[in-house]
Each structure stands twice: as C-alpha cells, then as structure tokens.
Specification:
This protein is mainly α. It has one domain (3-304). 81% of the residues lie in helices and 0% in strands. The protein contains twelve helices and no strands. It has helices at 3-26, 34-55, 67-92, 96-117, 124-144, 149-168, 172-196, 198-204, 215-246, 249-255, 258-269, 277-304. Helix 1 runs antiparallel to helix 9. The protein starts with a helix and ends with a helix.
C-alpha cells in the first residue's frame, strides 16, 4: 500500500465513521418532516461547499465550461438526489429496516461495479470476504421476508454514484461544488414550492409536523440544526469523493460496511432497537471477512518488510 492509497483509505474510513454516527444527529430533527430536512440538506450542503471553495480559493465555476464535466456531475447529482429521496420515502413509509438493508447491499454493488467496469481484481482474502458478505446479506434478506425494492434502489443508486465519481476523476472539491449546485438548486425549488404551493409540499410530506418555513418559528436552534444538516451532508460526501479518486472501488466497498455497523450499534445500544439472529449471521459473516482481509494485508506487509 503506497502513501496515497494509505491516505485514501484513512479518508474513506473517516467518511463512513461520520455516516455511521449520524443517526445520533438526525434524532435531533425527528420532529421535523423528513422532506423538509431533505431540502434544507441540499441547500445548505451547497452553501457549505461554496464557502469552502471561496475560503480555499477553488474556482469551481470554471468547470461549468467543460461539457463533459457538467454532464458527469449532473448525473452524479441526480443519482445522489435519487438516493436521498428514496431514503426519505423509505423511512417515512415505516421501512427503516429496508433502508438499512440497502446500505448493507451497497458495498456488494460497489465491488461488482469495480470488477466489471473498472477491471479491478480481488485477492483471495477479498474473494472469501465477498462470498461471506453475500451469504450474510442473503440470509438477512430472506429473514426480512420480501424483495427489498427500495433497499435495492438505495444500493444501486449510491453504487452508481461512486462509479460516476470515479469515472469522472475530477478534483474532489470542485466536483462536489458543481454537483451541489445542481442538488442545491433542486432543493431551493422544492422549498419555494412548499412555501407557495402547499399542495405540492403535502405531496412530498403527507403528514406535516411543521410548515415549510418552520425555522422562522423554531428560532435559531432549529435553523442551526438545518445548517448542520447541510454540513454533515457535505463533509462525508466530500471525503467520499476524495477517497473514490485515491483507492479502488473494491476497497471502498469493504469500508462501506463500517457505516451500517456503527448505525446498528447505535440503534441497539443507544435507542434499544432489536438485534435478531439474522443480524448476528450478517455481522458474523462481515467481520470474519474483514478479519481475513486484515490478516492478508498484515502478511503482505511483513513479506515486503
């Protein structure tokens, strides 16, 4: 593992630690409709990355002159929005387990895309880990009792998002800014529609706990949480973009198991959610696979030393 790959792996792990612990933050916004949180995430995510570009003197607007870059990052923005929107719909319809399952399947999709489209290779330990992961995910899916359509959309949309980002290979900060310009504009349109066309907003959120402009009533605390929602949306995505440019998608695929693992631990130990036998099989398979990869890496490092 060279220095660049080592830094890329550290960036990827940081990204998934943040994503895995975010349920603690989202609990603070549990009284706010998910669709309202979503549009604020999109808007404030753009604001955060734009401010970052200004402070670090990144001229991301120049990328709009590159037709290929615009089309690639527009596709990335669409895939990201599909993923976020599907997540909101899945959670609002009472299928949180299915949304979690989608993010367990997602690493397998990243690995598959890496093998098929980027001609990446798996080591023997990675092959064993992949087989174990498939066994665990299939066991969990069968236990769930039905085809997880929304979970599959979540898995494929984010897997495709990672592939598009890797294929583009654009500078991570500038690319994220262009991508966020598209999603931020969509979020702003949705917020304006919710303010002036209540019927449209009700279609997005059938049961509305607060009005689209509830931050004017909720005060500075709620507004600060909306801004933080944008920040915590931007930061891991920025780290993900950086990692996708530095390390193989197969590596990212295995790192992705960290996020749902942390989220499940938070759900079980902090919020008292159930841990079933199927969960146990899934996690046993995943962590045995991770142990195999770690042992193989250690042996290779010792052999080179």
């Amino acid at each position: 593992m060279n220095q660049g790959s080592g830094k890329g792996l550290l960036v990827a792990l940081s990204c998934y630690v943040i994503w895995g612990t975010l349920p603690i933050f989202w609990k603070l916004l549990s009284a706010v409709p998910s669709s309202l949180v979503q549009v604020h995430r999109m808007i404030w995510c753009f604001v955060c990355v734009a401010v970052f570009c200004i402070v670090t003197k990144r001229h991301f607007l120049l990328m709009f002159r590159q037709r290929c870059a615009v089309l690639t990052l527009l596709a990335a923005g669409v895939l990201c929005t599909v993923n976020w929107t599907t997540y909101v719909i899945t959670v609002n319809s009472g299928n949180i387990v299915e949304s979690a399952l989608g993010y367990y399947i997602n690493p397998l999709i990243s690995i598959l895309i890496g093998l098929v489209f980027f001609k990446e290779k798996l080591s023997p330990a990675q092959v064993a880990a992949t087989v174990l992961a498939v066994i665990g995910v299939v066991t969990f899916t069968v236990s769930y009792g039905q085809v997880p359509v929304m979970g599959l959309i979540l898995a494929f949309s984010f897997g495709a998002y990672g592939a598009v980002k890797k294929w583009g290979g654009y500078p991570s900060v500038e690319a994220m800014a262009v991508e966020s310009t598209f999603t931020g504009a969509a979020g702003l349109v949705a917020l304006i529609a919710g303010c002036f066309m209540p019927g449209v907003w009700e279609a997005l959120t059938p049961v509305t706990a607060v009005s689209p402009m509830a931050w004017t009533e909720g005060g500075a605390v709620l507004m600060a949480l909306f801004v933080l929602a944008g920040f915590f949306t931007w930061l891991p995505l920025q780290l993900f973009s950086e990692a996708a440019n530095r390390i193989p998608l197969t590596w990212i695929g295995f790192c992705q198991y960290l996020s749902p693992t942390l989220a499940l631990c938070i759900g079980v130990f902090m919020f008292g959610e159930p841990f079933t036998f199927a969960h146990g099989v899934l996690f046993g398979c995943l962590w045995i696979g991770i142990a195999l990869i770690a042992i193989e890496a250690a042996m290779r490092s010792r052999a080179k030393g």
